[in-house]
Amino acid sequence: MEGNEWIDGYLNAFLEIGSDVHRNCAPSSRSSPKNRVGAEETRQVWRVSRYFVEEVVSKFEERDIHQSWAKATVRRNDKIQSVRLENLCWRIWFERRKWKRIESERAQGRAARERGQRDAEEELLEDLSDSEKLELAEANSSSSSGSGTKKKCMLRNLSVLHSWSDQERGRNMYIVLISLHGLVRGENMELGRDSDTGGQVKYVVELAKSLAAMPGVYRVDLLTRQICATDEVDWSYCEPTEMLCCTGGESSGAYIVRIPCGPREQYLRKELLWPHIEEFVDGALAHIKDMAKVLADQLHHHLYHGNTNGTTPPAASRELVWPQVVHGHYADAGYAAALISGALNVPMVMTGHSLGRNKLEQLLVQGRQSREDVNSTYKIFRRIEAEETCLDVAELVITSTKQEVVEQWGDYYFGYDVKVDRVLKIRAKKGLNCHGRFMPRMVVIPPGMDFSNVVLDSETAAIANEIHGNTVSLPTSPKMDPPIWGDIMRFLHNPHKPMILALARPDPKKNITTLLKAYGECMLLRDLANLTLIMGNRDDIDDMSAANASVLTTVLKLIDKYDLHGQVSYPKHHKQYEVPAIYQLAAKTKGVFINPALVEPFGLTLIEAAAHGLPMVATSNGGPVDIQQALHNGLLVDPHDDKAIAEALLKLLADRGLWLECQRNGLKNINVYSWPEHCRTYLSRIISCRTRHPEWSTEDSYSNEVELDSSLHDSQEISLRLSVDGERFQSYGSVTNGKSSITVEDIKRFVEKYAQSHKKNASDVPEEAKSSELGTITTTAAAAATRWPLLRRRKNLLVLAVDNLRSHELVRDVVIAGRSYGGKSETGLVISTSLTASEVQLGLKAVGVSVLEFDALVCSSGAELYYPVASGSSSERDEQKGDPSSLPLLSKDLDYEKHVEFRWNIEGMEKTLARLFELQNGRASGIVKEAKRSNSRCLAYQTASRNSYHGMKIEELHEKLRMRGLRCHIVSCQNGTRLHVLPLFASRWSALRYLYIRWGVEIPNMFVCVGKSGDSDHEMLSRGSHKTIVWRSKRSQEEDLSSGVDAASNSEELLAAMALFVHR
Question: What quaternary arrangement does the UniProt entry report (predicted)?
């Protein structure tokens, strides 16, 4: 009970202080000289009140606070203070519970990361010498002590940058940038139109332009989503291509390329784009593949243009121009870039801009939404997993500040750990094995700025020319005042006083209300300067989001509370091109720019202000710390301390010498943040990435080769001959009748017509085709045919993505549909399964279907790819169960194995999994490695507990592996009783993209037949621009048809569904 007495004492003291404040703060006298002292007292009272609340929340147990509330409830009477005490106890009890839960989650996350870090360090430190361990300890201690090496690092980077233009001019790089959400265009950007169209849009457009202007860069593509919703957005967002700049060549320069995905005529906010990213990736792959050929032709022509002998080298000698890097911006585009990187085997770069785990914690601390509500609104868990995937794949992660590396990526994400990263760097430096562990390289490159639009008043321009030696022609101010000046000054009694300028959205995180309190409560500051708040554009506060409307309403109330009319300007509208004029006005009045945000990831407006000759006062949390270290043009403050904010503003404005010094420093050092400097640093970093690109020859390289080997024609002849006439599409062309969706009646009509037209053909299937013998597996090219698989001749692909191959009806119906659709050789068949190649052959043999009916087998959940071969030498056959002589050969695609081996180390992975499964908590895991189902690209495990692996779900297992620096793809298969751990790029979804990139089968012409449920990659396999058909059992026919899904239960319905897709 002693704790309760302290709680009661604290809370009663709090209530008494609050009563004094209400009695002493009369609204009618707030602006009087007498009440200037009262404002200071109010601030002190608030600090005392916060002390009491913090003492209760942090020092007492939840049960004690609850008892205090229960006692207050029992003793409740009609006195106001008694009711207030009861309500206060309840609120603080609730806050304590929330605080305790959040702290518990943080502690669990920290403990898990520390365990993973210790495991990784123990293994990695084993063969380091004592001197190397000492070097590592010194590196860890120096990182925690501050930024003592910051200047050294910057100088080292500059030495690399100066040589870029001279050494790399001969490169013809193709760079792909991706920014998926928002409205992206080159001119008249609608910044601030919504939360998705902000600074990121401006950044990526300017980055694309600036990179294209650099020597050594031939073309830059900025990929974004095509939006044809002309009722919602401008028609320009529907244009497939927009040229940003041209640098001389036929297709050189920078371009915005808009890829359709999702509903074409609907503008979607970023949280709703997640189901459509795979479709975007397929469109991006098609564009990049086509562009690789176009650029190869252009550069080939340019290289050999004007040769003396008048001959042109053969087309086969041309090398396709694949992207140097694919760079994703934000989580959604980063995830798309990761998938593209996996499909093309090219390096990936990631820029987070803002991070999901930080946002989740901030929203939970606010207490307005539960974890489930946050996820429902922001799809935050999907975003976080995408960010973790980006850390798995990315060669580089580009950040704006060192704080972002250490305090955001390092503290919140499993995929990056600062200490493990240092150990890996030391091992790599010494040439030691890292046991398959990897950490992405974190690179700090501040965003660039286009200084061509900077408008300086004459006095500032003179100072800038003096600093830079008149080497750069800087624009001076126009003769007439810009219109925006009048919009600002009309609010002010004396517009000639120095201006305190804040330019930020009315977002709670921007902390505008604290700035306004600091200004309103400091009479000296009010007498010295005006305050201008540029808070985006608005027509009606009621039409704004709840958070923004709340901030604006508070701003207006504070202006009224402190009677700041005539001293604060807050115009409703401004254009993007008017922003430089706003900075110019503030500099002309000898004002100060302020960014009081609670946390500022970077602070681009601070750089813009410095370029216009404005000193700054900025938050000490985040990017402004690095900006101040580079520019030395202002002061940093605690954004929670309104008194400190007022004092910093007074210091800069009242001390003219300090103001001039900060102005000169900013103008002198601002070129560090120019776009040319940014791009030099950027290019020097990306060329250091290990060059990766598709190493196999694509179909164009074979365009002049001989026809396919006759053995392939022989294998084709034994396939089922169930072709249909070429007029079937015309005969069924009227089914859709121009509708946008297909009805159940449409499907039934198709089924009936196809059943009638193919009934005779199905009965004429030769018996020898039904009972073809099966064969063995080889890992080498068993015949010339293996170089020319039938996939090269296929226009369509029907993929059977199920594990139950012993279902006679299922396999037979798929084979019939595949051989019937489009003629004798137009449609190829592929099996995609978690089974091994041997299990596939045995399963097909059990139902009497030859493996030669299929063009490719994707086995072990995407770890291996095989092509059936019609003939081969018996000496090349491996011994297997059954009769080896009766098994046709399967040729393994070794190029695919190389393609998916990215960051795969089977020894390190197996060793770590053994620790996690067998040694955790000292208990037996119940998980057994299946040696017969494992191979060099797949670790297979069997578990007795469905979908649980030693008490861990797949997500938890993935987190533990990421903590230890191990990157992989994990699949739970066969009803949750099997676990496959694969290389990062190995998956059934990726294997289909490999077939497209290598053999040219268009993804929209692929039909993937899946079950109603399946492995953990079932949902992923259903996404993309391919067509998905759900194979249903007889029992669920009515249920599936009534739901309107594309489903089939026999060959006729499967053909009907395929035809319906084509007509759509």
Answer: Homodimer or homotetramer.
Domain boundary among the residues 673, 695, 712 is at: 673
Supply the pLDDT for residue 714: 35
H helices within 327-452, ranges in order? 330-344, 356-366, 371-378, 380-393, 402-403, 410-412, 418-430
Q: Confirm if 53 and 92 have CB atoms less than 8 A apart.
A: yes
Answer whether 972's CB lies under 8 Å from 982's CB: no
Residue 295: burial class (beta carbons within 10 Å; 0-12, 13-18, 19+):
buried
For residue 208, pLDDT beyond 70: yes
Among left, alpha and beta (phi > 0; psi -120 to 50; other), residue 298 is alpha
pLDDT digits (tens, 9 = 90+) for 719-758: 332 233 333 333 323 333 333 344 445 545 554 554 454 4
Q: How many CA atoms lie within 13 A of 890 on its CB side?
A: 27
Phi, psi values for residue 649, rounded to 5°: -65, -45
pLDDT > 90? residue 100: no
Whether 56 and 195 share a structural domain: no
> First-to-last CA distance in the chain?
74
Q: Which has the closest alpha carbon to 813: 1026, 1059, 1056?
A: 1056
Q: What is the CATH number of the domain that holds 616?
A: 3.40.50.2000
Asked if residue 521 and residue 660 are part of one domain, the reply reads: yes
265 in any annotated domain: yes
pTM: 0.77
Contacts of 470 (CB under 8 A, 6+ apart): none
The beta strands (E) that lie in 620-704 are given as 634-637
CA dist 411 and 122 (Å) reads 20
Q: Write the single-letter amino acid at 174.
A: Y
Show the domain range for 343.
173-302+318-354
Mean pLDDT of the chain: 77
Tell me if 73 is assigned to some domain.
Answer: yes
**Residue 577 and residue 636 in one domain:** yes
Q: Please, which residues bridge with residue 534 across strands?
A: 503
Helix, strand and coil in the chain, % to nearest 5: 50, 15, 35
Same domain (yes/no): 64, 184: no
Beta strands in 492-562 (DSSP E): 499-503, 530-534
Q: What is the DSSP letter of 735?
A: S
Q: How many domains does the chain have?
A: 3
390: in domain: no
Q: Which residues pair with 869 in a beta bridge?
A: 889
For every residue of 462-493, DSSP letters joined together read HHHHHHHTT-S---B--SSPPHHHHHHHTT-S
Bridge partners for 243 per DSSP: 255
Distance CA 644, CA 658 (A): 17
Torsion of CA 320, 322, 324, 327, to 10 degrees: 170
* DSSP 8-state class, residue 432: -
Round to whole Å and give the CA distance between 785 and 400: 52
Looking at residue 671, what is its pLDDT? 87
Residue 416 one-letter amino acid: Y
Q: How many CB atoms lie within 10 A of CB 733?
A: 12
Token pair belonging to 289: 């593949």
Among 673, 702, 721, the domain boundary falls at 673
| Closest to 333 in 3D by CA, of 225, 469, 488, 419 | 225
Instruction: Give the Cα separation of 486 and 571 in Å (integer).
Output: 10
Phi, psi at 866, each rounded to 5°: -125, 155
Describe the strand order of the beta sheet including 856-859 as a list of residue ranges: 777-778, 889-892, 864-869, 856-859, 827-832, 796-801, 1006-1011, 1027-1031, 1047-1048
Residue 666 lies in a domain: yes
Please give the pLDDT value at position 720.
30
Contact status, residue 219 vs residue 252, Cβ threshold 8 Å: yes
- How many beta carbons lie within 10 A of that of residue 180, not counting itself? 27
Of the candidates 185, 165, 172, 296, the residue with the CA atom closest to the CA atom of residue 233: 185
